[in-house]
Amino acid sequence: MQLVESFEKLVGSLFTKKNIDLYITGSNAYLLSGELATLLTGRYIAINVQPYSFKEFAQANNEENNTELLFRKYMNSSSFPEAVTLAKQGDELVNDYIQSIYDTVIIKDIANRYKLRNIHNLHRVISFLFDSVGSNVSSTNIAEALGKASKKNLSHNTVIKYLNYLTQAYILYAAPRYDVKGKEQLTTNEKYYMVDLGLKNITTSNKYDADLGHKLENVVYFELLRKGSRVYAGKNSDKEIDFIVQKTKNEREYYQVAYTTADEKTFEREISALRSIRDNYPKYLLTLDYDNSNINGIQKLNVIDWLLK
User: Fold this and answer.
1) Are 218 and 231 in contact (CB under 8 A)?
2) CA angle 71, 173, 54 (to 5 degrees)
3) N or C: the chain end with fewer CB closer than 10 Å?
C-alpha cells in the first residue's frame, strides 16, 4: 500500500465518511510515517502481525503431544503461516517461499526505496546479524568485523543506516540495553533478533547449527513481545540479563534463557545474574530442562510449558 503514490489522500477521504472501518496493510514502518501519521494521529491502532508463536505452530501442525520434537522443528524452520502449510509438501517449497520474502524485503522495501548501490554489503550485514542473534553488537564492531573479513572498508555510518532499514522493514527487531543499577537505557550494544528463524536457512549453509541457545533466546524474545510488553536486554554491573520486561511503569520481570543448565557452571552463571538484582520483581530462568523449581524466589521453568500456557 505504501508504494502507491499519494495513497494518503485516499485514506484521508475515506476517513471522513461515516460507518467505515478502514484496514490498511503494509510491509514496513514507512506506512505510519510522514503525512499519513499526521493525518491519523490519535485515530488509529497499529497491529504488528508476526509469524506463528509456538502454541500456534503446534495447533497448525495438529500436534500438541510430542511437543519436544515439534519445538526442535520450530527452532530450525520457518513459522510464517504459509511456510508451515507448504512444509507439508516439502522443504524445497518452503525455502523458495522464504527466499521470496527475503528478496522482497531486501530489494523492494530497502534497496529500491533507499536507492542502494551496493546490495552485497547489505547482505553481508544481514548474515552477520543472523549469526549474532542475542549478542551485544554495535555499528562499529560490525563494520570492523566485516572489514577484516573482506579487506574492504565498511563505515559504521553505513552500518547504522542498514540497521535502521532492517528494523523499519521488520526483518530484524532491536532490544535496547537497560542498566538496572544505573536505572537508565543505554544507547550502544543493542541485541538484534530475526523475525523468523527460517530466514537463517537461506543465509547460511549450516541449517541445523549448534547455536541453539541463541535461537531459544530469539523465540523467547518474540513471545515476550507478543504479550505486549517493552523488552530490553539487561545489564547489572558486570552481569548480563537476557531480558528485562517492562509491563507497566511499576511492573517489571527479569528473564534468563539457557538451552540447559545441567552443567553447574552454566547454572551458576545464569542464576547469579538474577541474584544480583536487588529488587522484588519476578525473576525467571527458562530452559529446556524439566526440573521446574523455585530457587530462593527465582522460578526455573521449562520453556516449552511456558510457551504453551
Assistant:
1) no
2) 20
3) C
> Using CA atoms, how far apart are residues 202 and 243, in angstroms rounded to an integer?
28
Q: Rounded distance, CA 31 to CA 27, Å?
A: 8
Ordered mean pLDDT values, 10 residues apiece, the chain (309 residues): 74 84 79 67 81 96 85 95 94 94 90 91 94 92 88 88 94 96 91 95 67 93 93 95 93 96 95 96 97 96 96
Cell of 277: 538484582
User: Dihedral of CA 17/19/24/29: which sign?
Assistant: positive
> What order do you get walking across the sheet with 172-175 strand by strand?
136-137, 190-194, 172-175
- CA 82, 86, 91, 94 torsion: positive or negative? negative
- The reported pTM is 0.91
Sorted by sequence, the CB contacts under 8 Å of residue 301 that are 6+ apart come out as 284, 285, 286, 287, 292
Distance, in Å, from the CA atom of 176 to the CA atom of 289, rounded to the nearest integer, reads 28
d(CA 173, CA 44): 22
